[in-house]
Amino acid sequence: MSLPSAPVLQALKKSASTMANRNTPFVYNEWYVAAFGSEVTRELLPRTLLDKRVVLFRTEGGEPVALSDRCAHRAYPLSLGALEGDTLVCGYHGFRFNTEGDCIEVPSAAKCPKGIGVARYAVLERGPLVWIWMGDPDQADESRLPEQEWLSASDWEKSSGYFDLQSNYVSMHENLLDLTHLSYLHANTFGTPDYAKAAFKSEVGDGHFVLYRDVVPTTLPPLWAKPTGLEGCTTAARIVKSEFKSPAFHQVSVRFYDNALPEEQRTVSQIRTAHILTPQTHSTCHYFIVHGRDFGQDDDSITQFMHENLFEAFNEDVDGMAALEQVWQTTDPDEMYEFSVGADGPSVAMRRYLKQRADDESAARDTLLAAAPRVVPIRGTETA
Ligand code: FES
Ligand SMILES: [Fe+2]
User: Fold this and answer.
1) C-alpha dihedral over 255, 258, 262, 263, to 10 degrees?
2) What angle do CA 76, 79, 81 make, to 5 degrees?
3) For the chain, N or C: smaller number of CB within 10 Å?
């Protein structure tokens, strides 16, 4: 195999320039998951989200709060300060901030100067997740949360986990929308040889990308065969829907049953996995996962078996995306190219969408600046 010729390389680069990659600016005007609700407590939680330092905590009444983790005075991390009631006191010179991010006390000044503050980000707690809006505050509308009611529903037995992904978030979104990799990257866990060749359909909409893949008949890997009671079945059906719901949220839904049985005699077992991606930096990503099933709800041994095996499989993606990230980081950009094939259609469309969203936000730079931390000159501060 030879390298692409200069004209082919040029065409590939032109095509790639319309797709998001690790260098594309983040899309800020979206809800992202800042943390599992269980992580947000009365202890200050520092977290880098979309390249911004954020500190999270709960009020005494239990409400989650997110502020810029950068004091308005001399930029000391507020997360190194202390919570006193519902106020946060900076650990450097003691400036005190309320939950709106307003400075309400400067110990060295008899009267607190007006107008000092740090950014407060809108947060919403839904089910096990705390969502954050880091873009234009005027667009922080709850209706823009991706649909995820099942995460709070009692008829889905759930387990959750987290990976500190050493990769940009675009590569991981592409991984989730491209299931042909199951036969290879996951050959030892939940992939089977027939998976990559199975017929697929896709839906490509504005901001909504879906890949359907029916693997029928198939023999399920132990991870799925054992809990669904389909061990030894060579006529199993594995009906997969992989869905990009937002730049922050991807859902995989799968149905399993014995395809040899008449429809009315089938026991259909369903699983769902929420793959929740929040860029940390351009080369790292918070990867929250919630996995659910609608069968065997009372059997903890199934939960444990599936959790252990699934997270082993997800770790293959985590390692794989870290390896991919290293290639991007260490390759001369002039030599970098990607060939797309037919099965990449949905993920190429998704990457074009992310690029367009980023370009649109860049064009509306003034809106982004309005959401930046409110740093104002200190006037009238008395010197000690
Ligand atoms: S840096 Fe926070 S009070 Fe001075
Ligand atoms: Fe994967």
Assistant:
1) -10
2) 75
3) N
Domains in the chain with CATH codes: 31-134 (2.102.10.10), 146-362 (3.90.380.10)
Cis amide leading into 217 (omega within 30): yes
pLDDT, tens only, 220-272: 999 999 999 999 999 999 999 999 999 999 999 999 999 999 999 999 999 99
Ligand 1 atom 1, closest CA:
74
Q: Ligand 1 center to residue 81 CA distance, Å?
A: 9
Digit-coded pLDDT (tens) for 166-224: 999 999 999 999 878 988 999 989 888 888 788 889 999 889 999 999 999 999 999 99
State how far the Cα of 167 lies from the Cα of 181, in Å rounded to an integer: 17
Q: How far is the CA of 208 from the centre of ligand 2 (A)?
A: 20
Query: Which residues have C-beta under 5 Å from ligand 2, the single-atom ion?
Result: 317
Ligand 2 centre to CA of 185 (Å) is 7
Ligand approaching nearest to the C-alpha of 68:
1
- In this structure, the residues whose C-beta lies within 6 A of any atom of ligand 1 are 71, 73-74, 76, 90, 92-95
Query: ∠ CA(320), CA(324), CA(325), 5° rounding?
Result: 115
